[in-house]
């Protein structure tokens, strides 16, 4: 794998291979010495033109746990403010020895452009480009779903698939690269996806996507789902005309305390298939009180922090496959030693 730019078209075998490697990477977390030597001498550049907490820091942690050197670049405070182009910025960083560039950019297609332009030889990982894709978020979400299903079934995650798993992706689908990457990846892995959103926040063309579309969150929850993935309302990309009032949004499309209580009641009564096991996901950062209530975000059903933890293992797997060729067993260090 030379680059990871999107989950659209990502072969199922590649996706499963990354998830399986991430499982082995997570075992490193439980060791006394948490570092593997497999990327010693390699340099990973985090090239962030948009703000980030989880993605940037977890790529940094992932690279360091594989013994790579890390250079963090934030556009804010750099020569980008003097008008330096993406090409010149990337070539400058590659001249400092970048083997892989992890890029987040406000423009959809920026990662693809960097990878395909021939400006640099380094591998490119898309860490979120505009409203287009966020493939490592989708991989860590699939990893979280697979672990949840395996825990419920009492099986090994590596041998567990997502076939038939019912996932509702809820909220600001229009602006969400997380929704798009999840839709492509989860359907590749066999899950049934329903998009739930206000009509103004459903993208034109979504009717052709491999998902059911609903405007009614309660109807979807009543039908039974294995996971509800709440999306951040992206105020920074929102036009006022697209958005109901915050109060109406929270009431109709937010996972509020009343919906949590209804889910708990249904689970206790066995009234809805899988209600007892339904998890509540959110990629973060959360707008508490808008798309998700504190009661739901902090409930035992919430996987928000598990998703963050899983993100490190998944990003270790991605860097390992990119820079050490995967899919040898990373715990032996064999690929880097070869
Ligand atoms: N989920 C996610 O991409 O979070 P950050 O913006 O904090 O990286």
TrEMBL record:
The keyword DNA-binding does not apply. Its EC number is 2.1.3.2. It comes from the Bacteria. L-aspartate binds at residues 82, 177, 232. Carbamoyl phosphate binds at residues 54-55, 104, 134, 137, 284-285. Residues 164-322 form the Aspartate/ornithine carbamoyltransferase Asp/Orn-binding domain. It is an enzyme of class 2 (transferase). Pathway: Pyrimidine metabolism; UMP biosynthesis via de novo pathway; (S)-dihydroorotate from bicarbonate: step 2/3. Transmembrane segments: none annotated. The keyword Signal does not apply. Residues 2-146 form the Aspartate/ornithine carbamoyltransferase carbamoyl-P binding domain. It catalyses: carbamoyl phosphate + L-aspartate = N-carbamoyl-L-aspartate + phosphate + H(+). Keywords: Pyrimidine biosynthesis, Transferase. Belongs to the aspartate/ornithine carbamoyltransferase superfamily. ATCase family. Catalyzes the condensation of carbamoyl phosphate and aspartate to form carbamoyl aspartate and inorganic phosphate, the committed step in the de novo pyrimidine nucleotide biosynthesis pathway. This is Aspartate carbamoyltransferase. It comes from Tersicoccus solisilvae.
């Amino acid at each position: 794998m030379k680059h990871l730019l999107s989950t659209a078209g990502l072969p199922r075998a590649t996706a499963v291979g990354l998830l399986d490697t991430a499982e082995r990477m997570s075992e490193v977390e439980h060791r006394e010495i948490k570092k593997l030597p497999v990327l010693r001498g390699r340099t990973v550049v985090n090239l962030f033109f948009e703000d980030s907490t989880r993605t940037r820091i977890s790529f940094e942690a992932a690279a360091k746990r594989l013994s790579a050197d890390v250079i963090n670049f934030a556009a804010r405070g750099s020569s980008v403010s003097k008008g330096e182009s993406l090409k010149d910025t990337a070539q400058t960083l590659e001249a400092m020895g970048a083997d892989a560039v992890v890029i987040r950019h406000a423009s959809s297609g920026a990662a693809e452009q960097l990878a395909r332009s021939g400006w640099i030889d380094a591998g490119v990982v898309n860490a979120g480009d505009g409203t287009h894709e966020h493939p490592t978020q989708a991989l860590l979400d699939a990893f979280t779903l697979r672990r949840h299903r395996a825990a419920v079934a009492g099986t090994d995650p590596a041998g567990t698939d997502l076939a038939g798993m019912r996932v509702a992706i809820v909220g600001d689908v229009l602006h969400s690269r997380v929704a798009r990457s999840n839709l492509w990846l989860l359907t590749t892995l066999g899950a049934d996806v329903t998009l739930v959103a206000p009509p103004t926040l459903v993208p034109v063309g979504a009717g052709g996507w491999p998902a059911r579309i609903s405007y009614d969150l309660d109807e979807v929850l009543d039908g039974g789902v294995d996971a509800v993935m709440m999306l951040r309302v992206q105020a920074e990309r929102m036009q006022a005309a697209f958005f109901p009032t915050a109060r109406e949004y929270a009431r109709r499309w937010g996972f509020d305390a009343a919906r949590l209580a209804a889910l708990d009641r249904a689970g206790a009564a066995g009234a809805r298939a899988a209600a007892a096991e339904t998890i509540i996901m959110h990629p973060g950062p959360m707008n508490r009180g808008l798309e998700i209530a504190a009661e739901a975000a902090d409930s035992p059903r919430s996987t928000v922090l598990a998703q963050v933890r899983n993100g490190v293992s998944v990003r270790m797997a991605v860097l390992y496959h990119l820079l050490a060729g995967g899919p040898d067993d990373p715990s032996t260090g064999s690929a880097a030693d070869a």
